[in-house]
Automatic annotation (TrEMBL):
Cleaved signal peptide residues: 1-17
One GO molecular-function entry: transmembrane signaling receptor activity
Cellular component annotations (GO), alphabetically ordered: plasma membrane
UniProt domain Ig-like: residue ranges: 14-118
Pfam families: V-set (PF07686)
Subcellular location: Membrane
Major localization listed first in the record, in broad terms: membrane
Gene3D superfamilies found in the cross-reference section: Immunoglobulins
Name used for this protein in its record: Ig-like domain-containing protein
Keywords, comma-separated and alphabetical: Membrane, Signal, Transmembrane, Transmembrane helix
Membrane-crossing segments per the record: 160-184
Record-linked PANTHER family: CMRF35-LIKE MOLECULE 9 (PTHR11860:SF62), POLYMERIC-IMMUNOGLOBULIN RECEPTOR (PTHR11860)
Amino acid sequence: MRPLVLLWGCLVLPGYGSLVGPKEISGFEGGTVSLQCTYGEELKKYRKYWCRESGFLISRCSGTVYSGEYGQEGRVSVHDSPRQLRFEVILRNLTLKDMGQYWCGVKRVGFDKTFSVSLLVFPGISRQATQLDSTSTEDTSFVPSRSSSKPRVSIPMTRMLAPVLVLLALLLATGLAALGSYLLQWRKKAQLAMETPRKEKVHLSHLNTSLSFCWL
């Protein structure tokens, strides 16, 4: 009789094989929410599960997802960590229809160890996803500007300097050509200026000789 009383006390009395977790969790529509349920050493070897409360007079479970090798069904996954004496429930792509009461439980002989969790879902995108998107866009917009700053500065400078250098070279060549032409003309004029007196002297000498012959 005494072993039966002890067994009944182990199965019914609170505190034995305790299971604790948050009473309420919340998330945004389209986002992800997770919770951790911790249990006692006595519940280590039992299967853990997550289900939605259904029924009006008698509380029942629907859409139960058990922990196991994969521990995932649809948008819900249950991962048990016996060494840490806890299991994690993850709900993805939340919808407004997901709002309601759920059970976080441990399957065992006799009575399951459970506690009720209230899930609230708010309209809109999750804040965490919005923050991640904003930081990722800032990072992507900042990194290319740093990497592309050097070529954007060096390439236009070379393109701007090239026409200037070509123009300077053309001006220099034109100036040298004009200077050479001017020097050549000046040299010709100097030579003409030196040859003109000589021709006049020769012409005068010829006139003098012709006049002397006429007087004779």
